[in-house]
């Protein structure tokens, strides 16, 4: 079970055939991310392996996942928006049900350069690893 918002976006993105139109849609998703101010960008929340400066803060409060993020590229911020739709303010179980396959279903990864595609996977892995560690009580 994934969030309704993510399911809707996956369906919308999958229907967009034009690559540039898909990018525009992803750029708009940047607004879905709660801002992590630049002053809060640290080595701990940096997405290592991303070609842009990208930072994600992951927390669990009252059993719900909370994400804040920031990036120096609008495209990367939009990709964070995709993660936020699937995870932010969702119960932990719903957030953990999201997989990189959901991003593939949306047709996003094949629209990106290989380095950007790897960056999305790195971002996703960073969030899921942190959620797993937090849910284990670490």
Give an account of the 3D structure.
With 138 residues, the chain is an alpha+beta fold. It has a single domain (4-135), classed as Alpha-Beta Complex (Sufe protein. Chain: A), CATH 3.90.1010.10. Helix content is 51%, strand content 13%. The protein has helices at residues 4-15, 19-29, 74-87, 92-97, 100-105, 114-135, and strands spanning 34-35, 54-61, 64-71. It has a 3-stranded mixed β-sheet with strand order 1-3-2, covered by helices on one side. The chain starts with a helix and ends with a helix.
Keywords:
globular, alpha+beta, 13% strand, three-stranded mixed sheet, 3 strands, 138 residues, Sufe protein. Chain: A
What does the secondary structure layout of this molecule look like, with pairings?
Blueprint: H1 4-15, H2 19-29, E1 34-35, E2 54-61, E3 64-71, H3 74-87, H4 92-97, H5 100-105, H6 114-135
Parallel strand pairs: 1-3
Antiparallel strand pairs: 2-3
Major β-sheet profile: 3 strands, mixed
- How many distinct domains? 1
Q: Nearest-angstrom radius of gyration?
A: 14 Å
* SSE ordering: HHEEEHHHH
Number of strands: 3
Give the gist of this structure.
The chain is α+β, with helices and mostly antiparallel strands. The chain has one domain (4-135): Sufe protein. Chain: A (Alpha-Beta Complex). Helices cover 51% and strands 13% of the residues.
